Amino acid sequence: MPSVQTDLWFDTQALEAAEYWTSLVPGSRILEVFHDHGGNPFTVGEGSVLYVQFELGGQRYGAVNGGPHFQLDESVSLSLMCDDQAEVDRYWEELTREGSESMCGWCKDRYGMSWQIVPQEMMRLQADSDPVAARRSTQAMLAMHRLDVQTLRRIALRTEDQDRMPAPAPEQGRVPNHIEGAVRISAPAHEAWELISRPGWWVNDGRIREHEITSDGDRHTVTDPVHGTFALTVEDRLDGEFIAYRWEGFEGSDDPRTLTQFWVDPLDDGSCMVRMLESGFRDGGASDAALRPTYDDQAGGWCLELRALRSALDGS
């Protein structure tokens, strides 16, 4: 019976990549290394590595040094299913150290191989018998770089019914790609929805005020009497429950085009929770030192705006 394995094309780094990957993933090993014995115009030369067979997490792969004719891209990726956030963090930090981050738990390593770093909890949420939980886990996941298990759970399962004010970035390590917050409001969910579905409602100074809004389909141009004119686009919407805005910035600015998502959840006592997730802080490739002040200012701003939202709706 024939066996099946996946083969990957490299210029000259097949063995180096295989050794790196097998050092990272448990249950991995180099099986055999084949060298060029002459007559192959696509290798560096006689005696160089031509082909490597290896196991990665118990799966068999091959890697060929065939020259620069084909490049690795996102059409092929390796998925790592992680038991917990600590495991997600460990692999993410290592693979992106000389690689790059992407969306939805995807990243690239130093060799250009795409990886999906997926917590097992994400798969459980997406398979949840509650379609709202499954849908929300997808909505939140699409806004993330590194997947955050606790944030995914809070948004998908709606189990938290108390304020969660956004926090500044950790003093050590990388600045997160997203800011999360939630506020409990003593008002019906439909009233909260009416306010958060107004484009740009959060641009104010701690007290929600009227804006002049001009709309062209899902794109909205908003003028605030103090801060001026800015634009944003509604990228997704589920009336009464969820809305996602893509920030396009103030006129003449180079603001990052972050995505801000809001969810409204009714509670049994007639009050509601409003949850928010703003993401995209790392999309521009800025250093952590440059990102940290911007992130911290934005987190502080969201604390102000979530309290302003509550005050506008229930007076507290």
UniProtKB/TrEMBL annotation:
GO terms for biological process: methylation. Residues 4-118 form the PhnB-like domain. One of its GO terms (molecular function) is methyltransferase activity. PANTHER family: PHNB-LIKE DOMAIN-CONTAINING PROTEIN, PROTEIN YJDN-RELATED. This is 3-demethylubiquinone-9 3-methyltransferase.
